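Example for tutorial group B:
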């Protein structure tokens, strides 16, 4: 602490210390000059709103008429990065920032829909048909599914038939898929004037829906809803390389429709057929009646010769009522009319049958088997079977003396396959015949199926096939094809009635080797084991 010097007057007398006295340190500097003088309100300390600050307590400061308590009315508000702050500002904490979304980048941290960015604005139409969110089983086809250098020549009207093969064109690619009822197809493609963007057909390639000429569905897809089993043919203009990656076909199933179809099939499977078929029993002298056409005649061509080749020919009688180019509708009409039919003996004992009405023919003998088949052009379409098949069976049951009479069905062959055109033939039509036959088995109760068509297809897929695929005119069987058919029918029908197998028979036609005959028998036995599958 500094030494304090006391100030005296001239006589050396010590003067009393007051506020105004000069108090000096040892260096002669005034100490009391560094301290605050006593505050006097209004003199050396201001008042606020005429109220002294020396009175203690709180002083309320009002804005007066010149101020405002509304922040939005203030001018010169503060700003951050050039953005004026409006209202209350809550700055994010590090934990807040950790939960925030990074900048969205289409295709990286946010998905696209139908190859379109969600960040572009506007509307994206999600096709889903009437099923909405009821869609199941999505399958997508991209440009790798296209057959390059070809297009479907689908400039055809509804009701016309699609060509079976695509046409060459270097500026196109194409594809086709099988579709089912309830399928919803979303198609991104660009078509041409002839090679339309898409064409929907039934199983017979009959057009149900076709795109307009030169339609472009790359940005906005076409949506096609499938009502029945069939095919979707799609063509794509690939002349612009940038368009190719945009191609796609997406197939989804409408769950409601799929369930309805399944329920229908289940109901059919569980519903007893209106006709309980008889069985093939061993009999000493089987009697067989066939209502058919030239395909029936082809099938029976060598039956008499096969029977004649046996060391002892068993008694039997096979009659054929043949009318060319006829099917079930013709014979159903004969069941309810006075028109007559003419049975002709094909093999075995003559029963003395003559021209008569069909009901009378049914009643003439205790037939063991009635053989039926459909006209070749209708065999792949079950809708052509009814009501005619039921009429024939009902008339048979009402008139035949044998209550256990069985009905056999000839699963016929398809025509020779051709490279061009619109005809249904080859394996494609064979598959349709099989589908129709399976439906008939469920709905009509016929379970004795003679798989002639399957045996023919087995042979067509083997090394014994000839250039005509065992036909003489593209559809009727040649001699080798007839041998295959006769052996198949014998094994399935006549052999079962007589207890004889073709494995114990060696009948052959002129010019056919023993090796080929053995292969034919293998193809027949494979067909017997797998009636609806080509081996």
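The residue assignment follows.
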């Amino acid at each position: 602490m500094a030494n304090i010097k006391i100030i005296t007057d001239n006589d050396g007398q010590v003067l009393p210390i007051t506020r105004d006295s000069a108090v000096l340190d040892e260096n002669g500097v005034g100490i009391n000059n560094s301290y605050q003088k006593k505050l006097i309100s209004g003199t050396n300390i201001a008042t606020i709103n005429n109220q002294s600050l020396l009175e203690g307590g709180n002083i309320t400061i009002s804005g007066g008429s010149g101020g405002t308590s509304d922040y939005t009315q203030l001018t010169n508000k503060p700003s951050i990065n050039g953005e004026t702050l409006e209202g209350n500002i809550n700055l994010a904490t590090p934990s807040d920032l950790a939960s925030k979304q990074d900048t969205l980048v289409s295709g990286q941290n946010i998905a696209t829909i139908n190859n379109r960015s969600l960040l572009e604005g506007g509307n994206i139409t999600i096709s889903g048909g009437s099923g909405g969110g009821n869609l199941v089983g999505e399958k997508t086809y991209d440009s790798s599914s296209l057959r390059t250098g070809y297009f479907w020549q689908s400039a055809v009207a509804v009701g016309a038939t699609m060509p079976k093969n695509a046409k060459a064109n270097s500026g196109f690619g194409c594809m086709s898929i099988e579709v089912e009822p309830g399928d919803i197809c979303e198609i991104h493609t660009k078509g041409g004037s002839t090679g339309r963007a898409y064409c929907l057909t039934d199983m017979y390639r009959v057009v149900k829906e076709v795109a307009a000429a030169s339609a472009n569905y790359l940005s906005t897809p076409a949506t096609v809803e499938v009502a029945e089993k069939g095919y979707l043919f799609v063509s794509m203009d690939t002349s612009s390389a940038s368009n190719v990656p945009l191609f796609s076909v997406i197939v989804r199933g409408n769950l409601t429709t799929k369930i309805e179809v399944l329920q229908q099939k289940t109901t059919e499977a569980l519903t007893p057929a209106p006709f309980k078929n008889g069985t093939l029993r061993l009999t000493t002298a089987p009697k067989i009646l066939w209502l058919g056409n030239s395909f029936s005649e082809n099938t029976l061509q060598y039956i008499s010769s096969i029977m004649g080749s046996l060391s002892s020919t068993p008694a039997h009688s096979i009659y054929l009522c043949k009318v060319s180019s006829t099917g079930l509708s013709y014979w159903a009409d004969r069941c309810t009319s006075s028109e007559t039919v003419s049975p002709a003996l094909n093999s075995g004992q003559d029963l003395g049958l003559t021209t008569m009405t069909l009901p009378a023919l049914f009643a003439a003998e205790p037939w063991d088997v009635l053989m039926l088949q459909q006209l070749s052009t209708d065999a792949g379409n079950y809708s052509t079977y009814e009501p005619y098949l039921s009429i024939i069976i009902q008339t048979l049951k009402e008139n035949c003396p044998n209550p256990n009479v069985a009905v056999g069905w000839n699963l016929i062959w398809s025509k020779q396959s051709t490279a061009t055109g619109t005809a249904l033939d080859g394996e494609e039509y064979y598959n349709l015949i099989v589908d129709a036959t399976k439906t008939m088995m469920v709905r009509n109760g016929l379970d004795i199926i003679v798989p002639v068509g399957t045996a023919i297809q087995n042979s067509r897929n083997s090394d014994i096939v000839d250039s005509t695929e065992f036909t003489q005119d593209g559809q009727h069987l040649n001699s080798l094809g007839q041998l295959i058919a006769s052996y198949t029918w014998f094994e399935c029908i006549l052999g079962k009635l007589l207890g004889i197998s073709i494995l114990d028979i060696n009948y052959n036609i002129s010019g056919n080797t023993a090796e080929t005959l053995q292969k034919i028998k293998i193809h027949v036995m494979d067909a017997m084991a797998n009636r609806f599958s080509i081996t």
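The mean pLDDT is 85. Compare this with the pattern of hydrophobic and polar residues in the output above.
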